[in-house]
Amino acid sequence: MAPAVAIDTTVARAVAADLGENVYKCYQCKRCTAGCPVAPLGDLHPAQIIRAVQLGDLDAAVASKFIWLCTGCVTCSTRCPQEIDVAGVMDELRAISWQEGLVPKDRPFADILQYNFDSIVRWGRLYEIELIARYKFMRPRAMMDDALLGMKMFRKGKLSLRPAFGDRRQMKRMVAEAEKIEAERAAARGRVSKRPAPARVGGAR
Amino acid sequence: MSRRVAYYPGCSLHGTAKELDESFRASVEAFDIRLDEIPGWECCGNTAAHARSRLLAAALPYNELWKVKSNLGLDTVVVPCAACFSRFMVTLHDMNDERKHADIQRVVGRRFTGGVEVDNLVDVFYDLVGLEEIERRTQQSLGGVKAAAYYGCLLTRPPKVTSAEDPEYPTHMDEILEVLGATPVDYSYKTDCCGASLALCEQSVVVELTRKILSDAAAAGAEMVVCACPLCQANLDTRQEEIAAADPRFVKLPVFYLSQLVGLAVGVPVGRLGFGKHMVPVEPVLRGAGAAV
User: Fold this and answer.
1) pLDDT tens, residue by residue, A57-113
2) Are A95 and A112 within one domain?
3) pTM of the predicted model as reported, rounded to 2 decimal places
4) N or C, which end of chain B has less CB nearby within 10 Å?
């Protein structure tokens, strides 16, 4: 007899509560993976991420390179025969990572998303130059990547030096209110990860 | 009779995609549509918001939709950026769920009950203006130039949210190009991802994805690529130098916004179409098509 596999439904229940998706509908046909543009470039592929959620292996899912490479092209959700919003599950895993302080180090896209988010909250709009400058400052090795391209774009007037402002007061209100509601829900649901919570998580930096 | 619609440009159109903003305004005005930019508009949240909080991501466009209805008193908002468009459509979709709508309303502190149509760049020309009107107003045919219409991801996906008729094989942009006098080519990558915002941190991924799209378009005979999203245009246009350096057989293709070609065809002055902002020069193929640029 094959050894039994332990299934912990904590992660799947969190996905069901937050996103309204039942990952147990997935029977691993792998159409999501077949159509995924970044599956060949990551470590796990989308069907394996869904499997990890089914089994309750949150660590495997959030530590994967894959969820931090997913571009959100939504091909997977479009083609899933069980109509699971696979791309939505990737977002949900990233959201849990942020809420619970599980974002792995050395995930460049996670940094980009963080600086992007900070910029939106600060100005009400994305300030492209600030985002790029912060990313380069934190990663000196990437400093010269696209330097020439950046210069060309600047010369063509495609990068604005000054930020533009949205309705910043309303933006801050919405961010704070959404965080409050989600913190309430998370407290009611309990922590998804088995790992202890780090001292400080979430929020704009 | 002139028509008024609300305009949500989004962050890119005031930055890296200024030529989309310019050419969009000019070409839409040519059809007597007046754009009222939403005052004090905020970022739609982009991937940074939806990868962190579905609730906040739905709330940000909701706030803009409320302004369209309550401040501007309009029933249509045009959103030329495909990524912003997608966020607006997700909000409308989430509003169908009463519990989600109640949460969104609590976050925004305002109540919007619907009645605003959201149109992307292709919808504006296909539905709001219409093929017949474009045909009637076309003064400068594109001379049969072979064009690959590139839809990318978010104009059509997910179909539950966008209501796209055929998300795997859209044709609206091809139909518009045909009316403008171009010859649309049939190719396999018209809805494949360009790499989107990985452009800033995972350049090699974007180079590989755009190489596939551009090579497939070129193999189908395309002389140009036409798109309707600032991220798609930026990725396809800016990575060709690197692709060509690694592959001597690679043929560079100019990458247009649909609004630039519509504008050119209906007689918008070339100075308002932003052709100088491209990385791969666009003038040779336009001159070849008989345009005076």
Assistant:
1) 999 999 999 999 999 999 999 999 999 999 999 999 999 999 999 999 999 999 999
2) no
3) 0.95
4) N
Residues of chain B with pLDDT > 90: what percent?
A: 94
Widest CA span in chain B: 57
Per residue in B19-56, pLDDT tens?
Answer: 999 999 999 999 999 999 999 999 999 999 999 999 99
Q: Which of A60, A131, A72, A62 is nearest to A95 (CA)?
A: A62
Task: Return the structure tokens found at A94.
Answer: 């990233």
Query: Could you tell me if A171 and A124 lie in one domain?
Result: yes
Closest Cβ opposite residue B43 in set A71, A98, A124: A124
Please tell me which residue of chain B has the smallest CA distance to A77. Answer: B158
Cβ contacts of A125 on chain B, cutoff 8 Å: 11, 14, 41-43
Closest CA to B194 of B176, B216, B177, B175: B216
* Cβ contact, residue pair B11, A173, below 8 Å: no
Mean pLDDT of the region A188-197: 89
Residue ranges of the alpha helices (H) in chain A? 10-19, 31-35, 46-55, 58-63, 75-79, 86-99, 108-123, 128-138, 147-155, 168-189
ipTM of the complex: 0.93
Q: Please list every residue in chain B whose beta carbon sits closer than 8 Å to the beta carbon of residue A72.
A: 47, 50-51, 153, 196
CATH code at position A43: 1.10.1060.10
Q: Name the token pair of B110.
A: 């305002």
- Domain presence at residue A19: yes
Q: What is the pLDDT of residue A181?
A: 95
| Assigned domain for A153 exists | yes
Instruction: Classify B166 in phi/psi space as left (phi over 0), alpha (psi -120 to 50) or beta.
Output: beta
Q: Do A31 and A85 sit in the same domain of this protein? A: yes
pLDDT of the residue at A121 = 94
- Dig out the tokens for A101 from the structure: 């302080």
- The pLDDT value recorded for residue B245 is 94
Question: Which tens digits make up the pLDDT trace of B207-227?
Answer: 999 999 999 999 999 999 999
Question: From CA A70, how far away is CA B234, in angstroms rounded?
Answer: 19
- Residue A4 lies inside a defined structural domain of this protein: no
Residue A202: the pLDDT is 53
Closest residue, chain B, to A162 (C-alpha): B15
- What is the least distance, in Å, from the CA of A7 to any CA of chain B? 26
Asked if residue A38 and residue A60 are part of one domain, the reply reads yes
Domain containing A24 equals: 10-100
DSSP state of B146: E
